[in-house]
Structures are given as C-alpha cells and as structure tokens.
Amino acid sequence: MECVFGLVGDGFALIAADSSAVNSILVHKSNEDKIMVLDSHKLLGASGEAGDRAQFTEYIQKNVHLYQFRNGIPLTTAAAANFTRGELATALRKEPIFCEHLLAGYDKEVGPSLYYIDYIATLHKLDKGAFGYGSYFSLSMMDRHYRNRMSLEQAIDLATSASSRSVLGWSSLPQTSSSRSSTRMERGSTRGVNPFHQYDGYVHSIVS
Amino acid sequence: MSRRYDSRTTIFSPEGRLYQVEYAMEAIGNAGSAIGILATDGVVLVGEKKVTSKLLQTSKSTEKMYKIDDHLACAVAGIMSDANILINTARVQAQRYTFAYQEPMPVEQLVQSLCDTKQGYTQFGGLRPFGVSFLFAGWDSNFGFQLYMSDPSGNYSGWKAAAIGANNQAAQSMLKQDYAEDLGREEAVNLALKVLSKTMDSTSLTSDKLELAEIFLLPSGEVKYQVCSPEVLTKLLLKSGVNQPDAEPSA
C-alpha cells in the first residue's frame, strides 16, 4: 500500500511519498513522514517494514552527518548512495533490512541525481523510479509523461497525476508557488495528508 | 632526561614527553632525506637514496617513493620495514574507502586515518612507535593538489614545501627562503634538486642517488603518479646545474 516515487528534473530532484502508517486493519497514522533529510542537499525516501524504515533511514542520516563532522566536507550523492547500498548488502546475509529507498541529491559538479536502492542492495542511478503498489501507476504515468529536464511545475503536475489513483495517503495537491534563491531545500505539506518533499536549486513552497 | 621513563612507550615522562616517540624521530633523522614541494600544477617528491652499491639489483621498485592509490603517493624516511607495514595499511584503507563509497579517498582523510593508526602505537598496546616519517602527495576534487607531512607521533599537517630525514631542518629553512606560491612543476623540481644537493652529504648528485616522483593531472583529467627514469633524471640534474659541486646552481 505504501508508495515512494521520485524523478530528476531541470536542476532539481524530487521525491514524493505517501503518508500512511498502517498495521493490518488499523491506521496508526496518516501523516507519517517517510522522507528523511540526510543533509542540506540530499533526501532519502523509503518504504517498507515500519521499524526498519525509520531506523535505517535515521542510521544513514547520522552516518552522513558523522562524515561531514569528521571530514569537513559533505558526501557526494553517489557516495551516500553507495554507502547506503553497502550497509544493506552487509545486512543481507544476516538479517535483511526490509526497506526500499530512493535517494535524491544535488551536487554542484554533477547536478541533480536519483538513486534507486532496493532491500537486497540493488543500486541504480535513474531519472525516475518508484516502489510499492503505487509504482504501477506512477511508473506508467512517468513512462508516458516524463521528459528530460522538466520544470518543477511540470514535475509536480506529473507527481499529482501519478498519485491520484492510489488508495491510501494521497490527497489532491493545491497550487504551488515557487521562487528562486540560493541552493536550499524546502519541504512542505498539504492541508491534507500529503507531505511533498522536493529538493533542488530553488526554493519552493506548497501553499495549501 | 629521565631514563627511567624510557622503556615503555605508553607513559609520559615527568616533563611531559613521550621518549619513545622522540627516539623514533631520532632514528628518522639519520635516514635518507626526502623533500616535497607543492606546485600550481602538481606535487613533486624527491628522495635521497642512502644505499647505493654496484651490487644492488636495480629493479622497477623504488626505495623512497610509493604509490598508495591512483591519486596518492608518498615518500618515506626512516626504518624501511616499518614503512612497508604502514604503506600497506594506507593502501588497504584507501581501497576500503573506495569499496564503500565508490570514490577515491580524499587525501587528508587517508593521511588522518593512517596517523590515527600511528597514534595508537604511542598510547596503548605496549608496542614501539613506527620509525617512519611520510610526505604524502596527492590530488582530490575537494582541495586539488596537496602535500602532507606526518611523523611517528601521529601528528600531521599540510605543507607547501616540506623536508624529512637527514638534515631536514636545513632543508626546511632553505625551502622557506626559496619557495614561491606560483611555482610550476618544473621549477619545483629544480628547487627540490637544488635544496637536496645542498643538504645531502655526498659531493655530487647523480641519478642513482636520487628518486624523483611527481603527481599531476593528465589532459584527460586523470591523476598521474610518475617516477622519473634514471635517464631523464640525469638530464634534469644537468639542466638544473646541481650535479657540478663547484658550479652555482641555476635559480
């Protein structure tokens, strides 16, 4: 029932995740934030086993921070993705971490990038990716409508339509407003239940 | 000087000194010298070979310079067998980093990691420190060309020009006088050869007494570590005028 999807656009990378936290017939929470902010220029969206998701993304976040504290420079997106994949691979032969991830980041030299990391430590650098039942819709929509270097507005439209058929956790996205500023990341959420995170070279806010 | 506090590495003397670490540095002061100079387009390492004998089998391997990773090399001064252990450790650390992050290890991080290893031998375990000083030369995308010096205590710092081994203080003060920020690689080589010729004990410099290595970028953007061949080195020595003991070396 969970869904995470992401795509790379013109100067930004975007991740959207549903916000349901469900246990069989019980909805624990409908505003669960499944996108971990790794640092000022990286996001890790995850879906899967609830405890694993929360613990593993936080573990990665802390290690990304530790690297920065120790070395004075941030990890590149590629390095962070490979590190994450390495941790999953190490756990695989002991006790797999049942959680799938999309890591989105922005590096000055490389631009925006998106990494698909599944629970058995597959790593792919992609322009668009998705996990969960919602991926059946989002991947098809992206196959049809995704173009290289989409603008943020186009990307949000695509994300809206990709999530519109899903059962849980999405609600219609209201208007967005955007403005350029120094490289920062801002996340926003709708009045409903849809945390919508985006990371890029602009500042964007979703106004409900 | 209190001899009673000598024998164990892991205790301070009453004056607050670690004698074993200092004795290790003494050992290095008797070893063949090495000089490193940071140029605008690369890093130059020059080393003095102490052991020269006709009977020595000249092979591809070097005595003073070692490649740690594609983008990183070092010059050593001190006990060679100790150096081998540390160089291997450094190589493993560099590969471990690349295995985890799929990127070359930043130069300072490698130096720091190796120095952490060296520090361990000054604090616990009861084993003596390594009798080696290093000059690390490398390139990474964060800070470009870099030169670091580290000693048996596990301290390190970044340098524009540095000398280790015999007569390193004299070499260091000469470097201080003659170093300029805008040196290119060729000028850096000349400076290094000039300084080494003045601090080495031997009367004349020949290519079999020296090793010269450079780290620079190829036009493709790849980092290249190149050890100078004896023939090219002889030509360089001639050109810079240092192998004539009476002639004034060119500036």
TrEMBL record, chain A:
InterPro entries: Ntn_hydrolases_N, Proteasome_alpha, Proteasome_beta2, Proteasome_bsu_CS, Proteasome_sua/b, Proteasome_suB-type. Residues 169-193 are annotated as: Disordered. It is found in: Cytoplasm; Nucleus. One of its GO terms (cellular component) is proteasome complex. Gene3D superfamilies: Glutamine Phosphoribosylpyrophosphate, subunit 1, domain 1. Its main location: cytoplasm. It comes from the Eukaryota. Component of the proteasome, a multicatalytic proteinase complex which is characterized by its ability to cleave peptides with Arg, Phe, Tyr, Leu, and Glu adjacent to the leaving group at neutral or slightly basic pH. The proteasome has an ATP-dependent proteolytic activity. The 26S proteasome consists of a 20S proteasome core and two 19S regulatory subunits. The 20S proteasome core is composed of 28 subunits that are arranged in four stacked rings, resulting in a barrel-shaped structure. The two end rings are each formed by seven alpha subunits, and the two central rings are each formed by seven beta subunits. The catalytic chamber with the active sites is on the inside of the barrel. Belongs to the peptidase T1B family. This is Proteasome subunit beta. It comes from Platanthera guangdongensis.
UniProtKB/TrEMBL annotation, chain B:
The keyword Nucleotide-binding does not apply. The keyword Nucleus applies. It is found in: Cytoplasm; Nucleus. Its main location: cytoplasm. It holds the Pfam family Proteasome_A_N. Belongs to the peptidase T1A family. PANTHER family: PROTEASOME SUBUNIT ALPHA/BETA. This is Proteasome subunit alpha type.
